[in-house]
Every structure is written in C-alpha cells, then in structure tokens.
Design brief:
single chain; mainly beta; Immunoglobulin-like; 3 domains; nine-stranded antiparallel beta sheet; six-stranded mixed beta sheet; 0% helix; elongated; Beta-xylosidase; signal
Length: 421
C-alpha cells in the first residue's frame, strides 16, 4: 500500500489529431436581439485509443479551438459559467454520432468578446472492424449567469472534415476450451482419462503429453461431439511428462488448445539387484511481494498553470516459489486524492508499468498496459499459467496525476493499494 501526494494543477495534454476548420451557423439567444452568426469553427477530435478491437470502448475528446460565436451581450461573463455539449460524427467502418459534454469551466469573457476554447468528452463502443473516421459536429454553448442562455452552432455542410481516424481490429471469440484429467499422476504406460468442453463440434482433437513447453511422443485423437465436448484417454509413457494438452489442428496453439493440466509420471519400476533408488523432496514455497517503500512524492505543479504531477512507484518485488502451473497477477487501485477542502478524482492517476524477470526464472513477467489506474484498478504486472512457473520479478511504474486547473493550493494525498493474486 503506497501513499501518493502532490500539490498544484495539471491540464490535460493536447491530442495529436488534426485541427480542422468548417463553416458554422450559430443562433444567439433571442434576448440578445442579434441575427444568426455564420462563421468558421476550428476544432479537433482526439481518441484515447486509435487501435482498438471490436467491443472496446473508445473515449473521444472534441475540442473547439476557436468557436464561431462570441458573447452575444455587452455584459461581461465571469469564469466557470459555460457548459458545452456537442456531437462527434462517426464515418467509414462505423457510422453514427457520439454525444460529448464538457465541464462548467471557462475563463472570463468580456462583453461581445470571443468565447474561449473548450473541450467535451464522450465514449462509443466499437462495433465493426476497419477505419472509423471522427469529425467534429454540432455544438451548443450554455451560459448560466443571471439568465440561462443557449447558443447552438450547427455544421453548415455536414459532415465537417475528418480530424482523427481510429483503425479497429476484429476481435476473435475468446478461447473457452478447457480440459480436466481423471488423475494427476500415474505409472509409465498408464492411461489417464481426459475430458473437455468448448471445442468445435465434430472437430478432431489431439491429446498430447507435454514436457515443459515441448510436446512428447505420447498422443491420441478424439472427436468433439455436437456440444463441443470431448472424452478419451491418453497413454503416458514419457518419464519427463509435466502436463497434458488438447488442441484442434495440426499443432498446439493457444487459440485452439486447452491446458496444459499438470500430470506426473511416477517411475515405479522395480530397482535392479545391487541398485538403490535415491529420492528427494522439493517443498513448494509461497507467492509473496515486498516493496521498497510506502510513500511516493509526486512533483509539484504551479497553481493555475498546466503541468503533470509525476513520480515513480516504489519498486515491488514478487517472489513465486509455489511450483505448479499457476501464474500470478499484481493489480493496483487508488483512492481519491484529498486536500484542503477539495478532492482530485482517483481516475486522474495513470501509470506506465514496467517489469523485469530475474535470470533463470521459469516464468517471464509481463508489464500491464499504460493507462488509468483509478478506483476500479488496473494491472501492474503478471505472469501466465504454464507447465513450469515461478521465479523472482520486480515491477515499477511511472506515475502521472492529472490535477484540474485552479485546484486549491495545498497538499493532496491518496492511497494506492497493490494486490497480488
């Protein structure tokens, strides 16, 4: 469990999308007594993931860099009275629109002055593979000062130019194939019962022994029934066998296979005359973790100015001495950051994980994906299941806290909890 502290303000970094300009028709509030405004809007649309898979959720940010409309009245508008809403148009492989909204946040606007730049965010679920274009759409500027007023702006000749393109990959169905064994060990030449589910109906399925990551010469073939179930037996002779797998196709693959499930061949042949059988026992250990410290001081940022509050996670050491086929997963989640009369939401903490494996370890550590940690949590590092697992590993992460501009000055603290399973 690590305590994270910071102080200051951070603005979201600008996206890499292209700024586009397009003619816009804006209608000032009736009370202003002004005719419609036909001007030009400059905007951009960014996506948090430009290479998603079908089924993924993508967050889009619509930033109006230069609005077409001005403050329609002679009355100066104070800060934080504007609430923008809008639409992002989808095209290409997936059509439709994304509703986006922005916070009630703005710099002061003088009478008849230009409205400041503002951003709005929303999400959509990818439903088709291919290139999906993102174009800025209609938007509305709502002001809440003395009166509730709206200034809707529509794209004159929709759609507006494309600002960003998201290329979605097809998402193949998850591999649900699984097998179980009638026993976890046997004598050389004994048959072990193998049953399974999730295979392709009517497909031939190979049962095979494994010695670590290599297939042995012990194989058998069964056929999946109409419900994708298999039932058969495998005669195991190889004394080095560590597990049993089942797979469709000509060779093992993680997409069409199940297992390995641990299996041990017990050599019970009689000892020849004049010989002695020498045995030993390797005791299984535990899965544990330790950390280099329990506090992280993030860098300070200046009140009222953008900037990242950054730091590094205290190094976490994982030791897996259990033996067996199970891997492990190290996850983290964080609380809100509490400060002087204000909070910074947990969802504003992101990390870029890294991990290393000590030479000689049977498993290989995999770093989690860079992104938001938040209250729901994210993976810092993990190792996969396998016929031989274990070892020593270290996990680290670069941390970045997105502190809203003009957050009250002071120290803010949250607790990042790490869980090893």
């Amino acid at each position: 469990m690590l305590a994270l502290t910071t102080g200051g303000a951070l603005a979201c970094p600008a996206g890499a999308a292209t700024d586009v300009s397009f003619p816009t028709h804006c209608i000032p509030p009736a009370i202003a007594g002004l005719p419609p405004i036909d001007g030009t809007t400059t905007a951009k649309v960014t996506a948090d993931n430009t290479s998603p898979k079908v089924g993924d959720t993508v967050t889009v940010t619509y930033t109006v860099v230069t609005p077409a409309a001005n403050n329609p009245t002679d009355l100066a508008l104070p800060a934080d009275i504007m609430t923008p809403t809008g639409k992002v148009a989808l095209g290409g492989a997936q059509t439709g629109s994304v509703t986006v909204t922005g916070p009630k946040k703005n710099d002061p606007v003088p009478g008849k002055g230009v409205f400041p730049s503002f951003s709005m965010t929303g999400t959509f679920t990818v439903t088709a593979p291919g290139a999906i274009t993102l174009s800025p759409g209609d938007y509305n500027i709502h002001t809440s000062y003395i009166l509730e007023l709206d200034t809707p702006c529509t794209v004159t000749d929709p759609p507006a130019p494309v600002s960003e393109t998201v290329t979605a990959a097809d998402n193949p169905p998850a591999n649900t194939r699984a097998i179980s064994l009638g026993s976890a060990s046997g004598s050389p030449g004994a048959a072990v019962a193998v049953s399974g589910s999730g295979f392709t109906a009517g497909a031939p399925v190979t049962l095979a022994g494994r010695s670590a990551s290599a297939q042995t010469a012990d194989t058998a073939t069964v056929t999946a029934d109409a419900q994708g179930r298999i039932s058969g037996s495998l005669v195991v002779n190889d004394l080095t066998t560590t597990g049993v797998v089942a797979y469709e196709g000509g060779a093992w693959s993680p997409d069409l296979g199940a297992g390995p499930v641990a299996y041990v061949v017990i050599d019970d042949h009689p000892v020849p005359a004049g010989s002695q059988r020498v045995t030993t026992t390797v005791r299984a250990g535990t899965l544990s973790m330790s950390q280099a410290g329990d506090a992280v001081q993030l860098s300070a940022v200046q009140f009222g100015q953008g900037g990242a509050s950054t730091g590094a996670l205290q190094t976490v050491t994982v030791k897996d001495f259990r033996g067996g086929p199970a891997g492990w997963s190290l996850t983290g989640k964080v609380t809100d950051f509490s400060g002087p009369g204000a909070k910074i939401d947990a969802g504003r903490l992101s990390w870029t994980p890294a991990c290393t494996t000590k030479p000689g370890s049977p498993s290989t550590c995999q770093a989690g994906s860079a992104g938001t940690v938040g209250a729901s949590g994210a993976t810092l590092a993990s190792t996969p299941d396998g016929t031989a697992t274990g070892g020593e590993f270290t996990a680290d992460a670069q941390l970045s806290l997105d502190v809203p501009a003009f957050t009250p000055a002071g120290s803010y603290a949250g607790v990042l909890t790490l869980t090893l399973t």
